[in-house]
Design goal:
Strand order of the largest sheet: 1-5-2-6-7
Largest sheet: 5 strands, mixed, barrel
Distance between the termini: 33 Å
Low-confidence stretches: none
Shape: globular
Radius of gyration: 15 Å
CATH superfamily: Gamma-glutamyl cyclotransferase-like
Structural class: alpha+beta
Length: 156
Amino acid sequence: MARVFVYGTLKKGQPNYKHMINTAKGLAKFQGRGRTVEKYPLVIAGKYNIPYMLNIPGTGHHIAGEIYSVDEQMLQFLDEFEGCPDMYQRTLMRIQVVEWEGKGGAGEARAAADGVLECFVYSTATYPPEWVGLPYHDSYDSSGKHGLSYVLRESR
């Protein structure tokens, strides 16, 4: 099992959460909520209003999201879904645990008690330079006050 931190449309209540609970794509178990230890720019960009965490550590905000434990099948699905490695790149990032529901071995408990976990995150270093000038968000909600509703793939 691997840990994945999601901050955009794959979170509970967001347009693509259905993929996280579709066991035909693999297993994803919600573990808790967290935020990035380092600051990053989270922007909503492109004609489909997609959330992107730009891989510019130290700039932006501590990004809020959810921590999942996923099996290899789900990790492969997420790589495909996220257009990895072209659109997003899957990298390990340090995530501060805000709220923990996960149950697991002593190593997991120790990591959660320490407050910081290493999780895979889909961020991007391959973005148009003008995206750096977009507004930065600390959390994502498709129907947030930004007014930039996400366009589902099946509606594009």
